[in-house]
């Protein structure tokens, strides 16, 4: 029987490809977090469809509404505008304060309970420095936190297999793995048709274009 691994699946391209990587060697448990983001409904739908695609029976959806209540991000605060185009500032408004630490914390709790030895997260360092919780240093530090904060006989490691890749390389790898890109969602603004204007849509479009692969979703 294969070892179990928890995969954090947002419903986007990166987490979908990461799931494809983990699926080669592990029995998968999918974890998805609703945190009051604008596209919560669509992301949850994508999560469940990706889970169905990989035949994942063990899936958990948690509500982290406090991230919405805390605010500070244009993804969770409807009073803030989602930036148009790709941003190159040190901390774009789409950064959700300490989100990945919250997500990984939930992943560690789940992994301890089900006996999983790995937690997969689809962070890409290309998103840094704007997103500080996507950097290799963050993942390394979090693995040290796991060692200090779990039972002595617990051996859980966070893996970020895409972290050193460029976005177009992620798309190419996903194509080789037959990842279901048609089920993914990247838009920061809309729950129906992707806006094609926000930072995340632009990164996605650029990645597919550079990879020479057709993006299977529709845009406004």
User: What is the number of helices?
Assistant: 7
Q: Hey, roughly how much beta strand do the residues contain? A: 5-15%
Q: Give the count of structural domains.
A: 1
Cα radius of gyration in angstroms: 16 Å
Largest sheet: 5 strands, parallel
Q: From the 3D coordinates, which CATH architecture would you assign?
A: 3-Layer(aba) Sandwich
Shape: globular
- CATH fold-level assignment: Rossmann fold
Look at the structure and name the CATH superfamily.
HUPs
Give the oligomeric state. single chain
Amount of helix: 25-40%
Give a quick precis of the structure.
The chain has 220 residues and is α/β, with parallel strands linked by helices. It has one domain: HUPs (Rossmann fold, 3-Layer(aba) Sandwich), CATH 3.40.50.620.
Written overview of the protein:
By secondary structure, this protein is an alpha/beta fold. It has one domain: Rossmann fold (3-Layer(aba) Sandwich). The protein is 38% helix and 11% strand. It is built from 7 helices and 5 strands, in the order βαβαβααβαβαα. The chain has a 5-stranded parallel beta sheet with strand order 3-2-1-4-5, sandwiched between helices. The radius of gyration is 16 Å and the shape is globular. The mean pLDDT is 95.
Q: Which properties best describe this structure?
A:
globular; 5-stranded parallel sheet; alpha/beta; 220 residues; 7 helices; Rossmann fold
Topology:
Elements: E1 4-8, H1 13-23, E2 27-34, H2 40-53, E3 58-63, H3 65-70, H4 99-114, E4 118-120, H5 136-149, E5 157-159, H6 167-176, H7 199-211
Parallel strand pairs: 1-2, 1-4, 2-3, 4-5
Helix pairs in contact: 1-6, 6-7
